[in-house]
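Methods — Computational structure assignment.
A single polypeptide chain was analysed. Its primary sequence is given first, followed by the predicted tertiary structure written as structure tokens.
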Amino acid sequence: MAGNKHIGLGTAAIGRPLYINVRQNTDEKPFSLPKFKENGLQVLEDAYSNGIRFFDTSPGYGLAEQLLIDWLKKKGDPDIIVSTKWGYTYVANFDPNAIEHEVKEHSIEKLNNQWKFSKMLLPHLKVYQIHSATLDTGVLENKEVLSRLHEIKKVHNITIGLTTTGNNQTEILEKGLSIEVENEKLFQSFQCTFNILDQSVFKYANKLQNISGPFIIKEALANGRLIPNNRYSNYFLLYDFLMKLADQYKVGTDAVAMRYCIDKFQNAKVLSGADNCVHLRANLLANQFSLTQDELEKLDSFRIESTEYWLERKSLQWN
């Protein structure tokens, strides 16, 4: 299957053993780094064989960048596009019992240090983003950082972007859209959380149509909260409707949640965060149908306040 217009693969779950999520599988097995690497490479290969050509990664995702670098050398396909980020360092050392998993640092030193490794993803590397840009780190005011990103853009013909996390996503997005270096817009790609529960960035849909790089949607499944489970009685009406749609279109509720994002942002790349081939193939069924306007409007009605969404997300565990 060649070409997958809407769906890309996010590599956080294949690069480190733990991630913020609602645990669906309680099968506990001792962690094996060689087996973990083998699984990660298999997921990359399976994504490729199912038409995915867009891969998103980060130094904060453990060994994900290295996996991609090794895999890309063997693939030799110029159609593969990679986006990566800078600003987070993975510190858990693949320890399932680690207290601290990642450290954020938006300094010029961190940018330069991580770029030295990330640039090994060239020539597939087309998008370079600030990882979770926030106002408190001052990264969007740091002229040295902004100038260096502009230089990377010019020298390597790379689109510069940023990712957003938290209940002020829209504020960061608006600021990013306004920043110029040498009289040109610096940020031409944005990666934001968007899903049935947190629809806050949708009000920027028109502006996001005009950027030259990709708009990337992460957390389309709300870190697993959109997979029906008994922990969230407040979502039971939503779960009922998702299961009705899943039955109607003969897919899983995961595919319905992803299709919602595709139909709301038709030019976006919606990331699957699957860490195994079964879940990946289930996600990819989102390509096989479209939601009607009435169905989209019904799903729209289940939105919650961004502050509530992110408070709930903070309560999720690394697993």
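Note: DSSP finds twelve helices and twelve strands in the chain.
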